[in-house]
Amino acid sequence: MDGLTSEESADWSAEVNTTAGITTSTSHANLFSQQGSPVTGLTFFLGTIYALIILVSFVGNLMVVVVILSTHKLKTTTNYLLMALAVADLTVTVLVLPFALVYDISGTWPFGSTFCRFWMSWDVTACTASLQHLCAVAVDRYFAINDPLHYYERMSSRKVIVIVAVIWLNSSCISFLPIFLDWYSDNSESTNVMNGQCFLDINKPYAVISASISFYIPLAIMGGCYYKIFSIAMKQAKEIYRMQKSLQHNNPDDTQSLTSKSNNLASERKAIRTLGIIFGMFYLCWQPFFIIYWIYAFSPHPDIPNWVRSSITWLGYINSAMNPAIYALNPDFRAAYKKIAWMLIKKCPGGSALKDRQNSLYGAPYEQRNSSPVTIPDMEASNELPRDRPSPHTMRNYSSIGVTDIARITYVNGHHPSKSSLHTSPLVQTVSNMP
């Protein structure tokens, strides 16, 4: 740190700034350069990337909320949990990221001492809530695939509301209370805006507790849930394989079983790949940040460039922008996205002419061609069940339920499932509607 005295250097190293939902021992002063170093190109490049992250996160998560609230068939308990995740990510996007962008680019905190506390508290709260909602989604998927008979007893709409409330309460308890009551530090005057910096000087107990609640405990729960899902899927795949061999032995000329086997293996690989992306994105986005966090919490003067610390912090923020793509882009969501986008296009100048041109080229109206209504086969009108609560008889006779849209069932009111449905493992059914 050229140009600083040893005393100033020690003070600079002790500054701890909250970003990505947990405190990190870093200063945002001159984030991309030491004073006088002309690296405006790097500043502009990273600033542009950060602004795009904010835009993508805001639009993506807002669309998730809008399509769930405006589309009747998407109003399920599981999708409400996904909407709560989107709200948490929207909170990160609106209340945290714009101020982090200004702070990182300018290298100074211009919003005052009181707002510094609020900003850091919301940073911890919102990012922790986002991570814990990811954990709740993993638990929801595990319940649906492991014990579908009792799924609605465990994950009713009322219980989803309780889960969301507990997540936000828990997230607030490790942020607002410690920051405003100075429990996080051994120095009662550690939270301040000094020399244009909004910083915290945390103690090691708070570092361990906050990191565990925000990341490591959710990571362990998610890992356990997805491991169990994989185990169930592999067991089901073996049963399917034995069933297919038996069908082929009894009817050697039946090529349908061979085709079904091939299709099932392809679907199995896609399902495993999808769950791998879910868990992998969570881990890859946040683990680098928490490595830096531990380094700063237990090392007095680590020598890590400012732009590296900032980039790793924003890598965690990227997870909020990626969640809509990972969890919501199934066929039903895509159809709802297209419908809303087309409505907006029609309201723009020239939108009606574009609609007429699309209809003349493709025949059917564009909205109808891109709609994909969910239908439940073999269900008589007189015996129709509420969408969000299949009967226990249905649940007993169905091997598993798709989590993203749990009402997509093929065994209803005593009708036997088709042969193709017997060749679909619970893992494939769980994530078959995901991209």
TrEMBL record:
SMART domains: 7TM_GPCR_Srsx. The keyword Disulfide bond does not apply. It comes from the Eukaryota. GO terms for cellular component: plasma membrane. It is a multi-pass membrane protein. Residues 60-327 form the G-protein coupled receptors family 1 profile domain. InterPro entries: GPCR_Rhodpsn (IPR000276), GPCR_Rhodpsn_7TM (IPR017452). GO terms for biological process: adenylate cyclase-activating adrenergic receptor signaling pathway; positive regulation of MAPK cascade. Residues 368-397 are annotated as: Disordered. Gene3D superfamilies: Rhodopsin 7-helix transmembrane proteins. This is G-protein coupled receptors family 1 profile domain-containing protein.
